[in-house]
Design a protein that fits this description.
Distance between the termini: 81 Å
Order of helices and strands: HEEEEEHEEHH
Number of strands: 7
Shape: globular
Low-confidence stretches: 3-19, 21-31
Largest sheet: 7 strands, antiparallel
Mean pLDDT: 80
Structural class: alpha+beta
Strand content: 25-35%
Oligomer: single chain
Number of domains: 1
Length: 188
């Protein structure tokens, strides 16, 4: 009986810590507890009706997730739209795995050299607020990571976008289309 209890405790601890441990590339494992993440996408500098900026906020332990979508440039007739949404448990588990595999938790992800940054590309980044080695810190990805990290980060970014329900994206697109129509009509 005592042996069974010990095995159960060991298995539970391994599963719990394994969901927040990274040991990629033979580095020492990092114990972490992330609190929230902020994923942002901003279009390349474009004329006001085509400008795009949104941020997805996800909390690791609560159902308080939302997306904020900004129509037009900040501080220039800015219109901010906010939608709340829930992430299912299986999606949160996949998100945790993608965060770990992205290397953001235990590596400084370098940016491409300035001469290699593509012109006109959208800016995508994620900030993760976490507890690491007993302290709270923010880890932020560069807009243009080096190729070694780019594919895993794109997978993370795409997944974050996918957890926002389709009806919210549809509403955002309708708001954007309406803004573009109104913008064009105001120029006539």
């Amino acid at each position: 009986m005592k042996y069974t209890t010990i095995v159960i405790i060991i298995v539970f601890t391994a599963v719990f810590l394994g969901s927040c441990t990274s040991s990629r590339n033979g580095t020492q494992p990092v114990q972490c507890k992330w609190n929230y993440l902020e994923y942002s996408l901003t279009s390349a500098p474009l004329a006001p009706p085509n400008y795009l900026h949104y941020t997805v906020y996800i909390e690791s332990k609560s159902k308080k997730n939302h997306i904020e979508y900004i129509i037009n440039y900040k501080d220039s007739n800015e219109k901010k739209i906010k939608y709340d949404f829930v992430i299912e448990t299986d999606e949160m588990e996949k998100l945790n795995k993608l965060i770990i595999s992205s290397d953001i938790l235990d590596a400084e992800i370098p940016s491409l050299p300035e001469n290699e940054i593509p012109d006109g590309s959208p800016l995508r980044s994620v900030k993760i607020n976490l507890y690491k080695d007993g302290t709270q810190t923010n880890k932020v990805t560069p807009y243009f990571p080096v190729k070694q990290h780019n594919e895993r980060l794109i997978s993370l970014y795409d997944f974050i976008e996918s957890v926002v329900p389709k009806n919210i994206w549809e509403n955002i697109n309708k708001e954007k289309e309406e803004y573009i129509r109104n913008y064009k009509n105001s120029e006539l």
